[in-house]
Design goal:
The structure holds two protein chains of two kinds.
Chain A: H1 8-33, H2 38-85, E1 105-107, E2 113-116, E3 128-129, H3 132-136, E4 139-140
Parallel strand pairs in A: 2-4
Antiparallel strand pairs in A: 1-2, 1-3
Chain B: H1 4-9, H2 11-35, H3 40-90
Chain lengths: ~150, ~90
């Protein structure tokens, strides 16, 4: 079965937040339009800002979860493609992402994760290049995504 | 020439363009309403409805356009996965 970009839960959350934002915004407009003095409209304006925040949250959640799903699937497919395309003599290591020319994979002895050498989390730390076996014992950094 | 199929497959991009135009129109109408009302009490409803409404429509346009980009990437991954499945069938991993 083909996976879906957005789950039913994500669609429900986005629709719910958007509906809530529109409802709050409409209520704010109605409250402001039925009051004759600006003093009475300030609360309605605050309510409108809340509606805008809800709408912005809906869009952010929608796009962030979609981007995350695409990234996870691309990584998964990349790993599967490596299993199919790797040379049978084991002469090459599995690629771990687009590394720059001076962007080797590093870790310190006490680190539970490995990083790109350019990762900000390695600045000021005594790190060294790690082998495939050392990487296997660690997780990839969630910041630099090696 | 843009065909009907293009409109069907790119409905979200089309909706994004329409939403952008609608957002700009709503903002201009709101500005006109505010400029013709001398009292702040008459202007604030325009700010809430047309100002925030126009921004909402522009936000919808951006979200739809970025969603369309994500959907395109997803369909590309679909094609890659099918190709990969065919390759795995030909040469199963040891």
């Amino acid at each position: 079965m083909t996976p879906r970009l957005w789950s039913a839960g994500t669609v429900l959350a986005a629709v719910g937040l958007t509906s809530a934002g529109l409802a709050v915004g409409s209520a704010a407009w109605f409250a402001a339009a039925t009051r004759g003095a600006p003093e009475g409209q300030i609360g309605a304006a605050n309510l409108a800002v809340l509606g805008a925040v809800l709408l912005g949250t809906a869009a952010t959640v929608w796009l962030a979860l979609g981007r995350g799903a695409v990234t996870r699937r691309a990584r998964h497919l990349s790993s599967r493609a490596w299993q199919v395309c790797r040379p049978p003599d084991g002469s090459l290591e599995e690629p771990t992402g687009p590394l720059g020319a001076d962007d080797s994979l590093v870790a310190a002895a006490a680190m539970t994760r490995y990083h790109r050498s350019s990762c900000p989390l390695t600045h000021g730390r005594k790190v060294r290049a790690v082998s495939v076996a050392e990487r296997a014992a660690r997780k990839p950094c969630g910041v630099c995504n090696p | 020439m843009i065909s009907r199929t293009w409109f069907v497959s790119h409905w979200d991009r089309l909706a994004a363009v329409i939403s952008t135009v609608a957002g700009v129109v709503v903002l201009v109408l709101g500005w006109q309403g505010v400029s013709q009302s001398a009292l702040p009490a008459g202007q604030i409803p325009y700010v809430i409805s047309a100002g925030l409404g126009g921004m909402f429509l522009l936000g919808v346009a951006g979200t739809l356009w970025l969603s369309a980009d994500l959907r395109d990437e997803w369909h590309k991954l679909d094609r890659l996965e099918r190709a990969l499945e065919a390759a795995e069938t030909r040469s199963p991993a040891s």
